[in-house]
UniProtKB/TrEMBL annotation:
Any Pfam family: Ribonuc_L-PSP
Coiled coil segments of this chain: none
InterPro entries the UniProt entry points to: RutC-like_sf (IPR035959), YjgF/YER057c/UK114 (IPR006175), YjgH-like (IPR038743)
Species: Rhodoferax ferrireducens
Name the record gives this protein: Enamine deaminase RidA (YjgF/YER057c/UK114 family)
Length: 134
């Protein structure tokens, strides 16, 4: 097996190495991005839900940018929400600021009971630009 083609956003490699996973991997023309949460630089959760959601998107966008992509290249999205019945509206109102214009990517939403102290997580698959396909 060839080594994984890992993408690291600027300034957060130590955080990923400490937690023993890759933020994103290029493979067969796609970028597979690990779930991103609203973590601060030190990895701790942003306590305000709306700010945490925005920070998760910002962290996601940093990875996409490091791979030469934007959210417009995203084809599939999975979101995880702790207690979605009470938090969905706050989280969902942030999406238009990051989501872009239609047509939108596919979306799967999953309600969960625990996200390591976070309330929202987003993971995506993006199509790499032709020159970056691996």
């Amino acid at each position: 097996m060839s080594p994984r083609d890992v993408v690291f956003p600027p300034g957060r490699q130590a955080l990923y190495e400490r937690n023993r996973y890759s933020p994103a991997v290029r493979s067969n023309g796609f970028l597979f991005v690990s779930g991103q949460v609203g973590s601060r630089e030190d990895g701790s959760p942003e306590p305000d839900l709306e700010a945490q959601t925005r920070l998760a998107f910002d962290n996601l966008n940093a990875i996409l940018q490091a791979a030469g992509c934007t959210f417009d290249d995203v084809v599939d999205v999975t979101v995880f929400i702790v207690d979605p019945a009470s938090k969905f509206e706050t989280i969902w109102k942030v999406f238009p600021d990051y989501w872009g214009q239609a047509p939108h990517p596919t979306l799967t939403g999953v309600g969960v009971t625990w996200l390591y102290g976070f309330d929202f997580e987003i993971k995506v698959i993006a199509k790499l630009p032709e020159s970056d396909e691996g």
